[in-house]
């Protein structure tokens, strides 16, 4: 089967499997269901192999999709291997408490084209196709905003930003610049999908670095633009006891991955493949992506895919009885995770 259809269907079924635990106030149950669904959906696929470059954890932290894990066709040595960045549930907290901000997502590219990103903070700026030539994080976010405003000759650009204490100052500056701000609690990858779908002009903020790979793949595949820079833990949490130990880990990570805190990382630095593809499906979702729903024996899933500058939004209906009759591997998941 076409690998794009396989991965699209995978994120949709991951959303369905996770549905059982939405609002149950247990992040681990949501994540466990999503991870199992990913592995079940991909373990018997033929014709391609996926290597996790940016996942959730290391080998000894299973059940996670760990760095270096192989999925797909593991028997045929002749099949092509692709790099993947994957987050079975981006936004486990909003999924567990049933508020907006959670999706299932994966991106893939040619082998050895994805940069492995450590568990660190990252400053990220993701802009729509209209502003791909207007941003330069070397000069700072304010200068980039002014350039974008100048490009369209208006101030009221729409920005999505995480509602965190670390963003207090820049939120004030954006308000002073006339920017319309939408605050979110979680999910900057989901926010970037909203930019692609035209619900906002840009996403800005400091969040997790591994998610930066997903956002970079989305930017490249949708014709948008992203720039990023790694941020020191102590710059975010200067008074935490953990900061000193965390800085030692970060130094080791930077040496291992040949990275630093000064370089501006373009999207193609994170995913060096113009043919990269990005997939997502809504759990609690929000914005332009709708949450998964269940009515009268059918699951309703809103999914998203981008590749080669083409953006697709899907509304899929899974009739549980019909799917169970035709797809035993999905029946296993539907039976285990029925609500």
From TrEMBL:
It is an enzyme of class 3 (hydrolase). Pathway: Carbohydrate biosynthesis. It catalyses: beta-D-fructose 1,6-bisphosphate + H2O = beta-D-fructose 6-phosphate + phosphate. It comes from the Bacteria. GO terms for biological process: fructose 1,6-bisphosphate metabolic process; gluconeogenesis; glycerol metabolic process. Keywords: Carbohydrate metabolism, Hydrolase, Manganese, Metal-binding. GO terms for molecular function: fructose 1,6-bisphosphate 1-phosphatase activity; metal ion binding. SUPFAM superfamilies: Carbohydrate phosphatase. The keyword ATP-binding does not apply. Its EC number is 3.1.3.11. One of its GO terms (cellular component) is cytosol. Belongs to the FBPase class 2 family. This is fructose-bisphosphatase. It comes from Spiroplasma floricola 23-6. The gene is glpX.
